[in-house]
UniProtKB/TrEMBL annotation:
<dbReference type="Pfam" id="PF00463">
    <property type="entry name" value="ICL"/>
</dbReference>
<dbReference type="GO" id="GO:0004451">
    <property type="term" value="F:isocitrate lyase activity"/>
</dbReference>
<dbReference type="InterPro" id="IPR006254">
    <property type="entry name" value="Isocitrate_lyase"/>
</dbReference>
<keyword id="KW-0456">Lyase</keyword>
<dbReference type="InterPro" id="IPR015813">
    <property type="entry name" value="Pyrv/PenolPyrv_kinase-like_dom"/>
</dbReference>
<dbReference type="InterPro" id="IPR040442">
    <property type="entry name" value="Pyrv_kinase-like_dom_sf"/>
</dbReference>
<dbReference type="InterPro" id="IPR039556">
    <property type="entry name" value="ICL/PEPM"/>
</dbReference>
<protein>
    <recommendedName>
        <fullName>Isocitrate lyase</fullName>
    </recommendedName>
</protein>
């Protein structure tokens, strides 16, 4: 409905109340409605699922249409990110939010900072989704509120052309609400637990759930050691649990991102159930590190499997975990991905140990032989040393090309000594184009950075502390923060406005008219920033 449609509808509604609602202003209600476009988290999930589905189709048509996101650990951080995107690029198209389980564990748990091992309260995940969308909706209310004020000014000045331009802009307003890809870890328990948590996350607004194939009670960060995977049937039960949650809640095009940690996971907690040779359980077990048993008297509480007609003893560690054969990680990843897509997943996530396009592409090429439109979400992780990795990649490419690399020590390419070299410049260019190149070559539909705002918060706080508590004193804040906010047009420089003070003033006027006691008068110091 347009601005005028809302106004007309409310005017008619007020008129039917026999004068008892005459104190209600129809245009004020229209404004409040437009400032709160989404009444529930499910409204958001349905709306954003549609965005992702359209973006996925656009990527299938042209891989230049890849999408991006940054991980955010607080509603304010997500809000400021979207405000900045709209300011710099004019649209949020192709830009999402990522909700990282790592950051929930490290920053949002009542236990305090925790490692990424699913030890945090699972309710903190839907709580953060709801918080992020609360702040994004508030960004809408704030920006539309400023447009309404401009509309009132245009009308008061008799500028009908400007008033019509503003009404057109209001009717075509682009919301700050964008898709969130939300990390449900390994499901926080059995499939029923996964279903219950998935429902809460969807009800909070999540249109895309990312789930990994690790054992939930042994879950590790994707870039740490000691990862343990589960058989496919166990994992697929949780994938189905997520789909049931979407369908029950009416989000029929919800997105499931299945993550495989098999590239770095050398262990499994259990041997897969197999009914017949070649089934999915048998394929999972075929990767186990096992030795043939020739003397039955050596069996002592061992688990024995049949492999090609031979009795085999899988290698079992003192932890009671079973070990996969070395060098099978890529093959297991490919099988995981194909199996997931064949059983209801929409997107894939392959957790790698380095950002190497050809490594990723070598697996995606094999997946696409079976499922041609397979697409990835990829973690452009801060756990990678991007500078070192790409300098080494350029170094290795030069060696393969027969170039002289005697001026470089491959082991210390991270050194500042190399910052101004041709090798470093080439590496930086590869980093700059990594997302575009990987989208085209390796099937990556969505690029995200899991923990960027964790690191930017630490870096900016370090810079401020160094200056403010040092010789610069107050100039450390003014020059390093406030002056830059003013010059660069950062929205929260007017922090009272950002926190909703002006929205509150508008509401006070709606509710109390001329009797409203408003905060935004002549003595509000925020007026100093008008210049």
């Amino acid at each position: 409905m347009t601005y005028q449609d809302h106004t007309n509808q409310i005017t008619q509604l007020i008129g039917r109340q026999n004068g008892t609602w005459d104190g209600i202003d129809a245009e004020a209600v229209a404004r409040m409605r437009l400032q709160n476009r989404f009444n529930t988290g499910l409204d958001i999930a349905k709306y954003t699922a549609g965005i992702m589905r359209r973006d996925m189709a656009a990527y299938d048509a042209d891989p230049a249409n890849y999408t991006q996101s940054l991980g955010c650990w607080h509603g304010f951080i997500g809000q400021q990110k979207l405000i900045s995107i709209k300011k710099h690029f004019g649209s949020t198209k192709g830009r999402y939010l990522y909700l990282s389980g790592w950051m929930v564990a490290a920053l949002r748990s009542d236990f305090g900072p925790l490692p990424d091992q699913s030890m945090h309260e699972k309710t903190s995940v839907p709580a953060l989704i709801e918080e992020l969308y609360t702040f994004l909706k508030q960004a809408d209310a704030r920006e539309l509120g400023m447009m309404f004020r401009e509309l009132d000014k245009a009308r008061e000045g008799g500028n009908e052309i400007e008033a019509q331009r503003l009404i057109h802009a209001i009717d075509n307003y682009e919301t700050h609400v964008v898709p969130i890809i939300a990390d449900i870890d390994a499901g926080f328990g059995n499939a029923e637990a996964t279903y219950l948590l998935a429902k809460k996350m969807i009800e909070a607004g999540a249109c895309a759930l990312q789930i990994e194939n690790q054992v939930s009670d042994e879950k590790q960060c994707g870039h740490q050691d000691g990862k343990v995977t589960v058989p496919h049937d166990d994992f697929l039960a949780k994938v189905r649990a997520c789909r049931y949650a979407f369908l029950e809640l009416g989000v029929e095009d919800g997105i499931i991102v299945t993550r495989t940690d098999s590239l770095g996971a050398g262990l499994t907690k259990q041997i897969a159930f197999s009914k017949e040779p070649g089934d999915i359980g048998d394929q999972y077990n075929s990767f186990l590190d096992a030795e043939e048993i020739t003397d039955l008297s050596t069996i002592n509480g061992d688990v024995i499997i049949n492999r090609d007609g031979k009795l085999m003893r899988p290698k079992r560690l003192p932890s009671n975990l079973f070990q996969f054969r070395e060098g099978t990680g890529a093959d297991r990843c490919v099988l995981d991905c194909i199996t997931s897509l064949q059983h209801g997943a929409d997107l894939l996530w392959i957790e790698t140990e380095k950002p190497h396009i050809e490594q990723i592409a070598s697996m995606v090429d094999r997946i696409r032989e079976v499922i041609p439109n397979a697409k990835l979400v990829y973690n452009n992780s801060p756990s990678f040393n991007w500078t070192l990795n790409f300098r080494q990649q350029v170094f290795d490419a030069w060696v393969d090309a027969g170039r002289d690399v005697s001026a470089y020590d491959r082991a210390r390419l991270m050194s500042v000594d190399y910052d101004d070299t041709e090798l470093a410049a080439q590496a930086d260019e590869r980093i700059r184009t990594f997302q575009k190149d990987a989208a085209a070559r390796a099937g990556i539909f969505h690029h995200l950075i899991t923990l960027p705002t964790y690191h930017t918060a630490a870096l900016s706080t370090d810079n401020l502390a160094k200056e403010y508590f040092g010789e610069a004193g107050m100039l450390g804040y003014v020059k390093g923060v406030q002056r830059r906010e003013i010059r660069e047009g950062i929205a929260c420089v007017k922090h009272q406005n950002m926190s909703g003070s002006d929205i509150g003033d508008d509401h006070k006027e709606y509710f109390a008219g001329e009797a409203a006691l408003k905060a935004g008068g002549a003595h509000n110091t925020m007026n100093q920033f008008a210049a």
